[in-house]
Amino acid sequence: MTSAIETAPETAPEIETATAAVTVTETATETATETATGTASGSAAAVAAARAEWDAGRETSEQQRREPYGFLAYSALHFLDGEPRRVEGFPGRWATGEQGPVVDLDAGESLTVDGETVTGRHVFGPVREREFRRAASFGDVVVELSRRGGHDLLRSLDPRHRLRETYVRTPAFDYDPAWVIPAEFAPYPAPRPIEVAAAVDGIVHTHEAVGEAVFALDGAELRLILLRAEHLAGAGLILFTDATSGVTTYRASRRLLVTLPAPGSTQIVLDFNRAGNLQCAYTPYAPCPLAPPQNRLTIPIEAGEQIPTFRPEPAETE
Questions:
Q1: Same structural domain for residues 45 and 87?
Q2: Tens digit of pLDDT for each residue in 22-33?
Q3: DSSP secondary structure code for residue 150 in this structure
Q4: pLDDT tens, position by position, 158-211
Q5: CA distance from start to end of the chain
Q6: Residue 37 belongs to what domain range?
Q7: Are residues 76 and 197 located together in one domain of the fold?
Q8: CA 82 to CA 97: how far, in whole Å?
Q9: Across the strands, what pairs with 182?
Q10: Is there a domain that residue 316 lies in?
Q11: Number of structural domains found in the chain
């Protein structure tokens, strides 16, 4: 019999999975170059190609959000500590320590781990920082272990969770080539650690800042900190807020992935049409990193994804 954990694809970090098409492509780079230089030849074709690619990426993202064990299926998040305790919605008593997360299952309780039924005491082993481990399942529910800001976390994924069942779509501003902006990459002499707050209280993330994106907008020079996108080689990550945050876009942060320049070059492209939501825009069970103070813009970035929409839940009847 196939277990739930075998059917659940591995979830990538919160900063990278709210949308699929997030990297800057050759068509976006070509559009930015023509916008900056005023080149007319081929510009319309480049914009049309970029818009078509953007449309296709948005459709792919919507399909991914609706996967049975995607992040909309997260149904709980709990901090583990050294004291074994019952956790609502999970079998057993859970704790963590030098051996990593441990569960003690009472008589009649079990989990499925690596396709085998587990009873009694089970030690899962240490969890790495920012690791997502689909560690076990019970029924259709998958148990995920992760570590954020030095805290071991226990999360469940339930394909019947109300957020997944009531999700409608993620609107976005219309594609606009004016928001494909050429920029300079100003690398730091050496990558530096930077602490950023999380969407879940009690967690502070530490990421590696590699430099700044320097660009002009409305006549002002702006500098945004670029973090290393750990799971995407050659990419940087910008976490930012702007004047649309909490109005038409998610209030806590959006993110933009940027292709870092080849050696000897400093030219990069910021395609704000691809500014996307973090998982915490959809679920309270995602401890996403938030924008550092330098990346909190006071101008509106009217491009990219907006606040997700959900169907209202039926009113309770007496």
A1: no
A2: 444 555 555 555
A3: T
A4: 999 999 999 999 999 999 999 999 999 999 999 999 999 999 999 999 999 999
A5: 42
A6: 17-66+168-310
A7: no
A8: 6
A9: 269
A10: no
A11: 2
Report long-range pairs for 258-267 (Cβ below 8 Å, ≥24 apart).
258/24, 258/213, 258/226, 259/23, 259/24, 259/29, 259/234, 259/235, 260/185, 260/210, 260/226, 260/234, 260/235, 260/236, 261/185, 266/184, 266/185, 266/186, 267/182, 267/183, 267/184, 267/185
H helix or E strand, kind and range, residue 58: helix 43-65
Classify residue 293 by burial, with Cβ atoms within 10 Å: 0-12, 13-18, 19+: exposed
Q: Which amino acid, residue 262?
A: A
* Residue type present at position 118: V
Q: Which residue has the tokens 């690791």?
A: 131
* Residue 232 and residue 23 in contact, taking contact as beta carbons nearer than 8 Å: yes
Read off the amino acid at residue 257.
Answer: L
Same-domain pairing of 298 and 172: yes
Structure tokens at 195: 């602490």
User: Can you tell me the distance from the alpha carbon of 257 to that of 2, in angstroms, rounded to the nearest whole number?
Assistant: 36
Does residue 89 sit in the same domain as residue 151? yes
